[in-house]
Design a protein that fits this description.
CATH topology of the largest domain: Beta-clip-like
Subcellular location: Nucleus
GO molecular function: histone methyltransferase activity
Strand content: 25-35%
Helix content: under 10%
Keywords: Methyltransferase, Nucleus, S-adenosyl-L-methionine, Transferase
Organism: Caenorhabditis latens
Protein name: SET domain-containing protein
CATH class of the largest domain: Mainly Beta
Number of helices: 3
CATH architecture of the largest domain: Beta Complex
Largest sheet: 5 strands, mixed
Length: 269
């Protein structure tokens, strides 16, 4: 090898090669200041400000955050960022998503509970909603940051409203000219998302529903504190639409959102 060795560094071209292949490392964290899931460089991690979730490679980070024009949106590849009001492939790098899976039901426990209860992650509990006439609701057992994502919404796939097990729990999935309903009204064939109520007004919402890859997911858009109820706004879902229950003679809630759910008792329960 040509060149003059530099004490402590080795040959100049060897040092240059090491600099060229040096890559950044990243971490997915809970940012306490923003109350949100974030991606930061590993060297920027401050224990007082961040809770580390997992490592992320530079290649993974570089693959995120490609902005997609509305006209080029592909339902199976792109996700709308509520905070940026833009589509990204696969999702926003500044406001990343972190999916929490359903709990796997165990045969040796909770056998008396419906299947939907058994899928509830340990982060939450199901109890009487604090909304008037809303039946059961879902409450946070721990702090839930912006960016957490749950789903998909589970239920029976049907082609006609007349096949619903019960009104007030169905999503209409649209894919091109095709339509199908996901009916979550049967607690033995749905999951815990069926118990999340809609807010009385837009300011109460802390979650939003969206469609991707032919399925419905819920994501957190406002920090949810311990003992706070999860409330999902059935808003513009970019392909999915909550099926409103027909209410004879009762006016709809005033709302900017055309898909807010109205049921027989003013809630989904």
């Amino acid at each position: 090898m040509n060149g003059i060795e530099i004490p402590g560094l080795g040959f100049p071209d060897t040092f240059a090669l090491k600099k060229e292949v040096e890559r950044k490392s990243y971490k997915l964290v809970l940012d306490f200041q923003d109350g949100a899931i974030s991606i930061i460089e590993s060297r920027s991690l401050v224990k007082e400000l961040h809770k580390e979730i997992q490592d992320i490679s530079e290649d993974e980070v570089e693959s995120l955050g490609t902005e997609i024009a509305d006209s080029n949106y592909e339902e199976s590849r792109d996700i709308h960022c509520e905070r940026c009001n833009k589509f990204y492939r696969p999702y926003c790098r500044i406001h990343p998503l972190y999916k929490i899976p359903d709990r796997e039901p165990r045969k040796d426990e909770m056998s008396l509970l419906p299947y939907s209860h058994q899928t509830l992650p340990i982060l939450f509990r199901i109890e009487a909603s604090r909304l008037p006439n809303a039946g059961l609701g879902v409450f946070a057992e721990v702090f839930i940051p912006v960016g957490m994502m749950f789903g998909p919404y589970k239920g029976i796939r049907v082609h006609r409203k007349s096949d619903f097990y019960k009104d007030g729990y169905a999503w209409l999935i649209k894919s091109g000219d095709k339509k199908i309903y996901i009916d979550g009204s049967d607690p033995q064939r749905s999951n815990w998302l069926r118990y999340i109520n809609s807010p009385r007004h837009e300011d109460e919402q802390n979650m939003v529903a969206f469609q991707t890859s032919g399925r419905i997911y819920y994501r957190v858009i406002k920090p949810i504190r311990i003992d706070q109820e999860l409330l999902v706004w059935y808003g513009p879902s970019f392909g999915g639409e909550f099926v409103e229950t027909e209410v004879g003679g009762k006016p709809k809630k005033p709302s900017k959102n055309p898909f807010i759910c109205i049921s027989h008792n003013g809630s989904r329960r």
